[in-house]
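input
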Amino acid sequence: MMADEYEQLLAASELRIEDEALNSYVERVLCETVGDDRCSGVRVYILNVPAFNATMSPNGAMTVWSGLLLRVRNEAQLGAVLGHEFAHFEQRHSLKGFEQRRGASDVMAWAAVLGGIGQTSTRDLQVSLVGSIFQFNRSQETEADLLGLQYLAQSRYSSRAASEVWQQLMEEADATAFGRKIKKRNRYRAGFFDTHPTSLNRAQYLLDQALEYEDSGDLRSDEHYEAIKPHLPKFLADQVRLNDFNGTEYILNGIAGTIGWTGELLHARAELFATRGNPRDLITSTTLYLRAIEAGYRTPETVRGLGLSLVKSGKQTEGAKYLREYIAEVPDAPDASIIRMYAPDIGKN
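output
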């Protein structure tokens, strides 16, 4: 009953991405991973949350966060994560966990989740949701890993993709730690997920098992990026706003290594450097904005970014030209007053 109530709130949440094509894509990958007979009763809800996560509740409602779709590099990796979550559902892990933690404090935590979805911050939503109901012990996580891997090996996808997901998460964590000048966590464990196997252990035992399967499935990278392409600029913009320069650089380089430096990726990387904004960064951002435009990605946001980078670099005249173009295209822009502060003559011919 509580899971059904949670699903109703999910359906009405401001975070939900109600794109039929994107939802159909995720549902298809799930079904191709676990089989049509298993997935028929699953309802997928994609949430606009720029972090790596997916969950599945006991009633068959699956949530997939936009940060997951951005980080996986192909259908096989997405299938690995979805298969893992489905394995929790099939083994009734979340229901068993709830029955074991149904004391008053946990019921109150569940009520807080129900009352707060769509109203809490992204961080609060993550902590409340994952920390209260969808918390599994280490043996359950391992069981779901291996059952999900079995689904993957029997599907069209390569089972090695499951290990690659955790390898990439470790590499991103290293990049973030380096950028923030903090010590790398050799155990590669996110502090909140203390009950989970370490990322290093998961990457190792998933790879070992995949090698035993000796399957030769597909990755389908092009198909993944084609499916998320309409949402890619938004996903990238949300990632840039996380203020994780090195982690975001890692993600951008990973995507570019798969599909090349498209206009969307060049724009996002320009925004990343422009946000940090030291003199050297402004030179880089200016170059990247120009490359994005040359690649055919001449959006108002790209023109605006180029104009601001030029103005902040001391090139007032050159920058004002692009800022005028931006205001002409978006006359009611919410930042119009700020733009005019950078280029006072913006209204002049």
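quick obs: The chain has a mean pLDDT of 86.
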